[in-house]
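Hey, resending since the last one bounced:
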Amino acid sequence: MNRIEQLFQRKDKNVLNIYFTAGYPGLNDTEDIILSLEKAGVDLVEVGMPYSDPLADGPTIQESGTAALENGMTLQLLFEQLAAVRKKTEMPLIMMGYFNQVMQYGEKAFFEKVAEVGVDGLILPDLPLFEYENHYKDLVESLGLAVSFLITPQTEPERIRKIDDLTHGFIYIVSSSSITGAKSGITDTQIAYFNRINDMQLKNKRLIGFGISNHETFETACQYANGAIIGSAYIKALKNNPNVAECTTEFVKMVKG
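The structure tokens again:
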């Protein structure tokens, strides 16, 4: 059982997953950010692999990715940073990025390296289910990695069932048909969508992401899932206050209320 599964055994509600872009605001901030998030009480950390053409990310995360690449962040450096921080924490860590990055590194080598450095799971939004099931699933599962897939308001029930079958870790519920970034709040339409997913009684835990940015939206999301994912709002906070420890403490306190 990997650390993500252990987390959900210990904690079933109000799970807080924070995303940050590796290499932002500073090239060597990865360890400080992860340890600061853990100290502040975050349950799970999603480490973004900066990419030049992120399909699902809004302007805030795109800008942080561009800055991180300009700072000199590479996958090899990120793996080195994650191996170092794993010696200091047992908190579950997920890498989030795009499948082109995996292909450029070499798929088998990438998955093996992720496991080697102590990362627990992956989110690759553009990895097709068919490709995963037929080419990578056996390898990934043999390495003990948890892959989380995304569902949206438009995802057909049959595909949701398939995702539930293939997922290990949690299902990422995308709150709306849009890119990442803070929205004004959670609408009745979104709540109906969350209830529809709950009625399906899926076997996996569920975290809601996209548009979760503060205590109110986090609390609302937690009423309809096991927890929530926050990314853009935290990146903005780091931009406004690049003192990682101070910024993180204040941000997580605001979210938890």
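The longest strand covers residues 15-21.

Sorry for the duplicate.
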